[in-house]
Design brief:
- With about 300 residues, this protein is an alpha/beta fold.
- Helix content is about 25%, strand content about 15%.
- The strands form two sheets. It has a seven-stranded mixed sheet, with helices on both faces. It has a two-stranded antiparallel ribbon with strand order 8-9.
- Helix 4 runs antiparallel to helix 5.
- The protein is globular and about 45 Å long.
- About 50% of the residues are buried.
- It binds zinc ion.
- The site of zinc ion (ZN) has 5 residues, from loops.
């Protein structure tokens, strides 16, 4: 896990990455996906997994493709019943979402054909589906573990009530379980699964970042050798050739279900951290259509090449 956090280059990093499926699954919260881009057509996918909670979409195309796209941080939704524990104003919370949401990555992922997709509609300020839910989570140090208590400027934003904890952790568990099931279904058909974990990050470093200070390339490609062979990384580089890219700087690793993490090399995974100015104006949270279109084309090229 540990995407959308800055961590040092891969060498010397602690070995684990993904905490998927580490909690018992239960019911999940309800709501809708976050805002969509209006200047770029976004194809809405049919939800094909029965009983999928309203806050995330699972588009299961495992019958026809080994590729799984993931957009964990594009959502802004916080269910109203969980707003009470925030200690900042509604305006400040929205400003935090502006700073920390991987804007339009949900739309980007939803627009690609030939891949399954898992698209999270809940804001990371409700619960971060890519954090470790235990004390091993490094971002706990700045109040940004699985349940954030602090914001982008390390200011307190929430005192998590007990009544919030269980349902939000249940959402985390169900999300993780669904993702794992999709990977298993994909493996059963294709004998391999290719995860592309799509994020974006701000042009300017934010105070919460633990390992900032390094170069912030237009594209940061996170991976680990066990889950990313050279041909896969080459396909990424060639598909995004128009963007200067750096490996595992300033974000590292990629999303793999814990069930498969470091034990099943049939599961490949790469994280794409796209610097936001490439495709949007961070000041106005407006998409830049040309940049967004080029990203769509590159991601589609990558999917077509590795499927
Ligand atoms: Zn992210």
């Amino acid at each position: 896990m540990l995407r959308c956090r800055s961590i040092p280059p891969l060498r010397g990093m602690p070995g684990r990455r993904l905490a998927i499926g580490t909690l018992p699954g239960m019911s999940a919260a309800a709501g809708r996906l976050g805002p969509r881009v209006t200047t770029t057509p976004a194809r809405r996918h049919r939800i094909t997994v029965p009983h999928s909670p309203e806050h995330f979409q699972v588009v299961d195309r495992s019958a026809s493709t080994p590729v799984i796209l993931h957009a964990p941080h594009g959502g802004r939704a916080i269910p109203p019943e969980h707003l009470g524990s925030f200690v900042v104003s509604a305006a400040e919370l929205e400003a935090e979402k502006d700073a920390m949401t991987d804007h339009f990555t949900d739309t980007l992922v939803g627009s690609i054909t030939g891949a399954s997709a898992v698209i999270n509609g809940l804001s990371r300020f409700a619960i971060d589906v890519e954090r470790f839910p235990d004390e091993s989570e490094e971002m706990n140090a700045v109040g940004m573990g699985v349940l954030y208590t602090h914001g982008s400027r390390r200011q307190e934003i929430r005192r998590v009530a007990e009544a919030d904890r269980a349902p939000l952790l249940a959402y985390f568990a169900q999300y993780s379980r669904r993702f794992t099931e999709l990977v298993d279904a994909t493996l059963a058909v294709h004998g391999r699964a290719v995860i592309i974990d799509v994020h974006s990050y701000p042009e300017q470093q934010l105070p919460y970042e633990l390992h900032g200070g390094g170069p912030r390339a237009p594209l940061c490609v996170g991976s680990e050798p066990f889950h990313a062979a050279e041909p896969f990384l080459l396909a990424v580089a060639e598909s995004f050739a128009q963007l200067q890219a750096r490996a595992n700087t300033t974000f590292a690793g990629s999303y793999v279900p814990l069930k498969h993490y470091q034990t099943d090399d049939r599961v490949s995974s790469v994280m794409l951290e796209i610097r936001r100015d490439v495709y949007m104006d961070e000041a106005t949270i407006a998409v830049r259509p040309n940049g967004f279109l080029r990203l769509q084309q590159s991601l589609q090229r990558l999917v077509d090449r590795v499927r």
